[in-house]
Amino acid sequence: MMPTILEIIVVVVVIIIITKSFRLQSLLLRSKQEMFGCQRFYRKRTDQLAPSEPQTFSLPAPLPPWPQGQGFALGKINLGELEAVKVSRFKFIWSNNTQDDKKGVTFYKPIGIPDGFYSLGYYCQSNDQPFRGFVLVAREIPFKSESTHISTGIASPALREPVDYTLVWSSNDGSEERLQGCGFFWLPQPPEGYKSIGYLVTRSPKKPKLDKVRCVRADLTERCENYQVILNVGTRFSEFLFQVWSTRPSHQGMLGRGVSVGTFSCNSCWVPGQELPIACLKNLDPTLHAMPNCDQIHALIKHYGPTVFFHPDEIYMPSSVSWFFENGALLFRKGDSVGQSIDVDGSNLPSGGRNDGEFWIDLPSGDRKNSVKSGNLGSAKLYVHVKPALGGTFTDIAMWIFCPFNGPATLKVGVMNYSLSKIGQHVGDWEHFTLRICNFTGELWSIYFSQHSGGVWVNAYDLEYIQGNKAIVYSSKNGHATFPHPGTYIQGSGKLGLGIRNDVACSNFFVDSSTHYELVAAEYLGDGVVSEPGWLQFMRKWGPTIVYDVSILPLVLRYSMANIFIKLPVELYGEEGPTGPKEKNNWVGDERG
């Protein structure tokens, strides 16, 4: 039922009160931070013992032998003039000390480096995570004529030692007597024409030896950026926090050639947008030989394909696209009130172009409308797009699922829940999740869960598994957003308890993507290797424009909700039916998150 005007007014009053209370708390917190300088202090270690080692993570089941291919899962990847190997063995160097070791961060030196390969930087991770990190080490492949400098006619080596080190930060408080157990962070100073790839950490103020690391010729690198904060450390000698970040290539997506090395970035005065003093590697191999071939793609899906569970109270089930077309979906054109039936493969849909509002798809009219809205679980399948990630060192397997209808939303305000009737519903719903596979080993590394206008990457060690290495994906009631665990997720302001409910749970309604799927695109394999269905080229809306009549609502609700619920999905304010997968930014680009 739609809430009454009185109920809405009560909700608005509650929202305003809670919002003002939250703002007051924020002001008080800010005043306290300014009073005490917003500094964080960590007690220095008085010994050099490593904290308890995090538990090493392994996938639930062993990996199968993959079908033969060119360079997938062979343990090393050719990047053009460099060959890279993933190293996962480390020696403890230093950890910031906290009362709880699990809240600390530990820094490691890679060990077990193969002969002829060189370290590019050190690794770190939070102590509350299972141990599954890596760094890349590299060696030079015999030079090619393209790397010869025109000015000298002599080839410059791909790797060179740094010329010096700069001390970036130390945990020492300036006392000569308290050096024991302190950490010292060093940035290699590269020769002219070269880039540093990572930092080194020592327990001594003495500079590391120059042969401990290598710098990389600049044309073999790409710009990288800070990604996620790993550590914040306050200091009494500076107004700035010392921060440690994970990094990623600045240019991501299937066309990006930047390669994540696994090293970290650190600084005490970084400004967002500022270029970092380190870089990532660049894959100059035009063939991307470490990507899986067609047989290997099918083997990966068979081994890792998640099971998608729908809510036990879900009434808007998925279907195959062909079932949707066969059961009466219509193509409409601007200015024409009569819809045209659509061929089962979508071959008569206008292809290419852009989303110009000239065409859209809608449900059939009459008795068939409600039955089509309900979907058809038995026909449902995942539509798979395979693409390179992180310069072809990882493979992204994006799995798209189609629902003929997206149901209305439910608003949560504290302990109260309000069904929003029609608000949030639309015809045609495309949702997806993405498996990221490591091309060095063939391991599942993480899964991206798409959630309305955003989403989140979840590491393999934080997933639920139903059988072997097959994870579970939960689809939310009505909205079909994807989540890694059952429960209720609030999209909006979690602190205020205000937002749209996303309820997910296990049920008897599910689709096994390891068997119910269709490979629809893998551009890197070349033209004609994967036949793209006709409907994939339809770049317009899969549903008509939705306009919500909110004229009956109080002015304060109409004009204040946008400010209060700035993080809510745009469906609440009216939305057109979504475009198809190929029109989404993440078809070519990386996922949001």
From TrEMBL:
Identification of the protein by name: Vacuolar protein sorting-associated protein 62
Domain of life: Eukaryota
Transmembrane annotation, as ranges: 6-22
Gene source species: Gossypium barbadense
Keywords: Membrane, Transmembrane, Transmembrane helix
